[in-house]
Amino acid sequence: MAGTEAGIVDVAIVGSGPAGLSAAAHAAAKGMSHILLEKTDHLSDTIFKYQKGKHVMATPAHLVLRADLDFDAGKREAILETWDRQIAEHKVEVMLDADVTAIEGEAGNFTLTLKRGATVKARAVVLAIGTQGNPNLLRLPGADLPHVQYQLDDPTEYIDEHITVIGSGDAGIENALGLAADPAQGNVVTILNRGADFARAKGANVKLLMEAESEGRIFVRRETSPAEVKPGELVLETRDGQESIRCDRIIARTGSKPPRAFVEAAGVGFTSEEREAFPALSPSFESTKPGIYVIGALAGYPLIKHCMNQGYDVIEFLAGNTQLKPADEPILEEKFAPLPGNRSVDEWLALFGRTVVILQELSVLQLRELMIDSRAHFYRKGEVIFERNAPGSSMFAIAQGSVLVEVNPADPSVTVPIGEGSIFGEVGLISGRRRGATIRAAEDTVALEFSRTAALKLIATTPGAARAVNRISIERQLLQMFGSGLTPEDLAEITDAAVVEDKRAGEVVIKEGDDDKDVFVIRRGSMIVEKDIGGHPVFLSYLPAGSYFGEMAVIDGSKRTATVKAAIKSQVVRFPGEAFVKLLDRKPKLREKALADMAGRREVNAFIESRKDSFGDAADYYSQTAKFLVDQGIGEATDVLLIDETLCVGCDNCEKACADSHDGLSRLDREAGKTYAHLHVPTSCRHCEHPHCMADCPPNAIKRGPDGEVFIDETCIGCGNCQRNCPYGVIRMDARPPKKPGLLSWLMFGIGPGPGEASYSWRKKKAEASGREAPKVAIKCDMCSGIEGGPACVRACPTGAAIRVGPERFLAVSQSERGA
C-alpha cells in the first residue's frame, strides 16, 4: 500500500492500547502513511488505567514478541514511559482527543467521523479499541449507590475500609492484591468468586491470591455472588443462603463487553448474538467488512504479547506480506507433528473449527490461543484413551473418527459410541470424579485434550462452547437417569428446550398447589420435599443430585402436591412437561418406570394425609431433624458418618481404629460436631458431591475415588488451602508421622507411643530429634479407601452406633427411633 493521495492515509488505527501502538509503530517503520486515533488525552488508556504500581506480566513466556516497541514484564509506569518515548522516536502520527463516532465507506475509501466534528480518510481501518471502556455493570438492587465503582486507580488511597472486590478474573485479583498489599493501611479486603475455580485468571495471579488468603490478608469467598448493595453493607448469596457483610466500598471487575453497536454500525459482523461474542475474522484479522481489520482484546486476544504481535502482523498483511505466519506457528507445528495426514497448522485449525461442535464459534485467533494450552492426540483403532477409575479432569473433543464407551465393567463388549465432533470426559471436568468408564478409539481417531484450566476458560468466555457442553452434559445425564433404551435422538426435543437454572439455598422450585407443568432434574446440589399439614411444613423426602421431580403433576394433570426447595445452593435443569409426556408416549418402558416412581410418591403423600391428625410432635420432629442434617452439610454429601447417641457408649473405638488404619493419625473427632435428638454428626468428611477442598489445590493432590471417596494423595505440599476451603472443619494440618515402632518394641522396651494414635507431642518430639521441623500435610477421612472391609470406624463400633450412609438414606435414619 505504498503511496498516498492528498488527505487520505493508507491506514487509520483506532485505539492506542498495546495492539494499536504496535500497529502504528510498525506502519511508521515501513514508511506507510498512517494516523493513530486515541479518544483520551494520553496513549495506551488500558495500561494507563491499571492501578498505580501494578506489575504487568509478559505472558505467555514461550511466545516470541514481534513488535517495533519493547515490552518486558515490569511496573505499569515504566512500560508507559518506554512506549511514550519509542512512539515519539518512531515519529508515529498520533491524534489525541480523537473519539471516533462513525466509520463509513468501502475498502480503499473510508471516512472516520470524530466526535468533535472532524473527519479522517483512510484506505484501511484497524480497530484496536479493546473493551475496557464498556464495563459490565452490576445488575442488582443498590448497584447505583455511590460506593460502587468499576475502576481502581490507586490502591494506596484507601485506609481502614472494608472493601469487597466483585469479580475473580485478573483485574479483580490484582485489585484485591493491591488493596491488601500494605497491612498498615488497615483494609479488610474480600473478593467474591461466583464459582469454585478461577477459570478466567492467569495461574500466577491465582497463586498470589492463594498466598494472600493463607496469610490472612484477603478473604476469598467462593461460590458466592452479590445479592443486594446497601449503605455500608453487602448482601451475599452463598451456598447456604444469604448473609450480610460490612462493606464500605465495592470494586466491581465483572468484565467488559465490546462496543457492539459502534462496531456493527461500521459493517462488522459477530460470531453470534450473545453479548460476549467477538467479531468474525479471517486469519489476517479482516472482518466481514472488507478493509476493516480487528485486533487486540476486541478480537478475543487480551494478552499484551498477543496484542502487540497482532499489531505487527496486521500491518504486514496490509503491506502485502501474505506469507507471514503467526508468532505461535512453531509451537503449534510441534503440537500437530504427531498427527497423520501431513496437514499444515492452518489446515488442522480449520478442521478443528469446522468439526468440533464446541469450537465452531471460535475465530482462528481464539482457536490458536486455545491450542497453545491443549494437546492433540492420535489414537489407533482399539487403543485405550483412558481407563475406568483413572484420575483425570481434562476434557476431550473428537476431531476425526469416533470412540466407544465401555459402559459395563464386567463386559467390555457392551459399548456406547461417541461420534466425530462431540466431546467426552466432561463429567471429570465438572465433578472432579475419576473416569467413569474406559474409552477406546473405535477407529483411527484424532482427539483434542483440553486441560481443566483451558476447558473452564473456554466455557467461561465462549458462549457457543458453554452452550454445547451444557447440551451434551444434559443429554448424557438424562440418558443415564431414564435409561430404558433411550437414544440422543429420543431426547432431542427435551434437550433443545432444557434450561439450566441456579437455585439459592432455601429457594422454592415447586410450590404446593401451583399449576405449572415443568419437570426438573437436579444437576448439582440437593432438594427437600415438604407438604403442608395443618399450616406446618412436614418433611417428606430428600432428593440428591441425579434425581428428577415434577413429573406427577405433568402425567396426571393435577396441581403440585408438595413443595420442593433447594437444600443448599443447587443447579437444576428445567424442561417442558409437554415434551416429557410425548417422550413417555413413545417409550412404554419409560412410562412404566415413571408411573412406578409416581406411585411410590403418591403412597407417601397419602400416608401423610391419613395421619395428619395424629402427627403432632412427630411431624415437627422429622422436619427439625431434616433441617438439622441439611445444616450439617448432608445436603451436599455423598457419604457421611452418623452416630446414634442412644447406642454410643463413648468407648472411642472408632477413633482408635481410624488412627490404626492411617499411620497413627485419626481422621475422626467423635466428640466434636453437632447433635440433634439421638443423631450426632461428628467431625468427619462428608465426601461432598462437589468438594470445596478440591478448589485451589496447587499440586492437584485431592482426588475422588471410584466409590466417591474424596482423598488426599502423597503429593500434598501442606499449603492448607483445603483446610481453609472446607466449611465443615473436617481437614486438619498435621505433622507427617515418623515411622512408629511396633507393638512388641513398646511392650518389651517401652519404645514408641504404644497402640492407637501417636500423639502430636510424640510426633513433634521425634521430628525435633532428627533436627528438622516436622513437615505438615493435610489429613482427612478417605473412607478407608483400599482397606478390606470398608471404613474402620464402623467396623470397630461394638454397639452399631456408628453408621455411614449415602444420600438415599440420610434422612431415613431420622425415623429410626420414632414410628409414624
TrEMBL record:
<feature type="domain" description="4Fe-4S ferredoxin-type">
    <location>
        <begin position="639"/>
        <end position="671"/>
    </location>
</feature>
<dbReference type="InterPro" id="IPR000595">
    <property type="entry name" value="cNMP-bd_dom"/>
</dbReference>
<dbReference type="Pfam" id="PF00027">
    <property type="entry name" value="cNMP_binding"/>
</dbReference>
<dbReference type="InterPro" id="IPR018490">
    <property type="entry name" value="cNMP-bd_dom_sf"/>
</dbReference>
<feature type="domain" description="Cyclic nucleotide-binding">
    <location>
        <begin position="482"/>
        <end position="601"/>
    </location>
</feature>
<keyword id="KW-0411">Iron-sulfur</keyword>
<feature type="domain" description="4Fe-4S ferredoxin-type">
    <location>
        <begin position="708"/>
        <end position="736"/>
    </location>
</feature>
<protein>
    <submittedName>
        <fullName>NAD(P)-binding domain-containing protein</fullName>
    </submittedName>
</protein>
<dbReference type="InterPro" id="IPR018488">
    <property type="entry name" value="cNMP-bd_CS"/>
</dbReference>
<dbReference type="InterPro" id="IPR036188">
    <property type="entry name" value="FAD/NAD-bd_sf"/>
</dbReference>
<keyword id="KW-0249">Electron transport</keyword>
<keyword id="KW-0813">Transport</keyword>
<dbReference type="InterPro" id="IPR050294">
    <property type="entry name" value="RnfB_subfamily"/>
</dbReference>
<dbReference type="GO" id="GO:0051539">
    <property type="term" value="F:4 iron, 4 sulfur cluster binding"/>
</dbReference>
<dbReference type="InterPro" id="IPR017896">
    <property type="entry name" value="4Fe4S_Fe-S-bd"/>
</dbReference>
<dbReference type="Pfam" id="PF13247">
    <property type="entry name" value="Fer4_11"/>
</dbReference>
<feature type="domain" description="4Fe-4S ferredoxin-type">
    <location>
        <begin position="775"/>
        <end position="808"/>
    </location>
</feature>
<feature type="domain" description="Cyclic nucleotide-binding">
    <location>
        <begin position="358"/>
        <end position="459"/>
    </location>
</feature>
<dbReference type="InterPro" id="IPR017900">
    <property type="entry name" value="4Fe4S_Fe_S_CS"/>
</dbReference>
<keyword id="KW-0004">4Fe-4S</keyword>
<dbReference type="InterPro" id="IPR014710">
    <property type="entry name" value="RmlC-like_jellyroll"/>
</dbReference>
<dbReference type="Pfam" id="PF13738">
    <property type="entry name" value="Pyr_redox_3"/>
</dbReference>
<keyword id="KW-0408">Iron</keyword>
<dbReference type="GO" id="GO:0046872">
    <property type="term" value="F:metal ion binding"/>
</dbReference>
<keyword id="KW-0479">Metal-binding</keyword>
<feature type="domain" description="4Fe-4S ferredoxin-type">
    <location>
        <begin position="676"/>
        <end position="707"/>
    </location>
</feature>
